[in-house]
Amino acid sequence: MNRTPFQKLVFERRSVRRFLDKTVSRDTVLACLDAARLAPSATNVQPWRFIVIDDPKVKDAFSAEVFSGIYSQTRFAAAAPVLVLILSRPDVFANRIGKQLQRIAFHLIDIGIGGEHLVLAAQEAGLGTCWIGWFNPRRARRFFKIPRAYQPVAIIALGYHEKTEPRDKKRKALDEIAWFNKFEG
User: Fold this and answer.
1) What does the alpha-carbon distance between residue 21 and residue 90 come to, in Å, rounded to a whole number?
2) Rounded to an integer, what is the distance from CA 27 to the centroid of its chain?
3) Taking the domains of the chain in order of start, what are their residue ranges?
4) Cα–Cα distances in Å, from 100 out to 43, 92, 93, 94, 149?
5) How large is the average pLDDT for residues 157-177?
6) d(Cα 19, Cα 129) in Å, to the nearest integer?
7) pLDDT at residue 23 in the model
8) Of 101, 104, 131, 126, which Cα lies nearest the Cα of 115?
9) What sign has the CA pseudo-torsion 135, 143, 127, 122?
10) 19-162, superfamily in CATH?
11) Which of 49, 82, 92, 174 could make an S-S bridge to 158, C-beta 3.0–4.6 Å?
12) How far, in Å, CA of 78 to CA of 22, rounded?
């Protein structure tokens, strides 16, 4: 199948759980963050904030806090050269009032879009990522003394990895998930 460069990028992106012990330059991390910064958001609130953890001592101490106990199955992320803690700063109107009226947490949708921009930029730069939602957000908040106005939402493990041959992803067929002009579920 002929794929466009973007389709190839999406096809080849994987959740990486084994990282090489190789430093990721801050310029590369900043390029990934810049892609996230350019993501759309509800009423252009841009609720995302990022704490980049690339100092090995800080990363080890942080990982010991947030990937322990019931969260220990994600401790593999501690081996990534970089962890990016994604915070959300919900806006009063777009997110709090919108959530009450629509029952949709728009800020989390926005975080998803921004985070996906980040992981696709990382993929393009030859890096692997793993989006992690299973961590202790209370300990993350305490570790960095994050004010209540910000909500720890996700961690993205980021680094170089051994390349593997892309293979088809197990996904539902399009006709199972998308319909034109009617609902067929």
Assistant:
1) 36
2) 18
3) 19-162
4) 16, 11, 10, 10, 18
5) 88
6) 9
7) 97
8) 131
9) positive
10) NADH Oxidase (3.40.109.10)
11) 82
12) 14
